[in-house]
Design brief:
Helix content: 25-40%
Radius of gyration: 16 Å
Strand content: 15-25%
Number of domains: 1
Shape: globular
CATH architecture: 3-Layer(aba) Sandwich
CATH topology: Rossmann fold
Length: 232
């Protein structure tokens, strides 16, 4: 049975609906919560069959905003996993960590809640399973700059990368493909800082529940095939 390590950066943001797709295929997962008392970052040797790096609410990766306290340790871990050929999935802040680990970069940007639509730009993305269009809900400070060799699989409405690939089994999502409105509501309550127009963004998310669920089915099928997590 496969086992995936998940690094959680806030109490509120978790795998969401992604959990159901992993459990339904017999893929085990465990959370690491370095922000809690006694919490830690795993060593690459104990990551198991892959690493998922989640979002971070208002935490970012570059000044002038607040920088994730465990950033350097997580970049080293992600880089080690890439070198070992282990799957790495970065979501939100996690996509920035993945970009840095893959010798890309980040650019400063204010904390934003963006609710829109992503568009596939690579026909064979996720083995051809990535939907041509799918919901994109981004709650994030700063943005990843994928390395020059990365493949952009999908872009947002402004043409920026919303899904990129840096290895056959390593992907960065600026949006959370399994997001739920309650997750964003909890992030707003967990921290003092919240993006402008949060109420409007939450209202938009409320209309996307079925569309998010529908898009997640082929996205997870493609990811699980690419990562080799499917248990036989």
């Amino acid at each position: 049975m496969k086992h995936v390590s998940v690094i959680q950066h806030t109490q509120s943001e978790w795998l969401g609906q992604i959990e159901d797709h992993l459990e339904g295929r017999g893929i085990r997962f465990g959370y690491f919560r370095p922000f809690t008392t006694g919490g830690s970052i795993p060593q690459a040797s104990v990551v198991g069959d892959g690493l998922i790096l989640l979002g971070g609410g208002p935490w970012g990766t570059c000044a002038p905003g607040p920088v994730l306290p465990t950033l350097e340790t997580e970049v080293r871990l992600a880089r080690a996993c890439l070198m070992l050929g282990k799957p790495v999935i970065g979501i939100g802040l996690g996509s920035q960590i993945l970009a840095l680990a893959a010798d890309g970069g980040v650019e400063a940007a204010p904390l934003t809640l963006s609710v829109g639509e992503a568009r596939r730009v690579a026909g064979d993305a996720l083995g051809g399973l990535l939907p041509e269009h799918f919901p994109s809900v981004v709650y994030m400070r700063d943005r990843p700059v994928p390395p020059s060799y990365a493949t952009t699989l999908a872009v947002d409405e402004r043409g920026g990368p919303t899904l990129f690939q840096v290895a056959p089994n390593a992907f960065g999502f600026t949006s959370h493909p399994g997001v739920r409105r309650a997750m964003i509501e909890d992030l707003v309550m967990e921290f003092d800082e919240a993006p402008p127009d949060t109420a409007e963004g939450l209202a938009k998310i409320a209309t996307l529940g079925a569309a998010i669920d529908d898009a997640l089915v082929p996205i997870m099928a493609g990811l699980i095939a690419a990562t080799g997590w499917m248990s036989v």
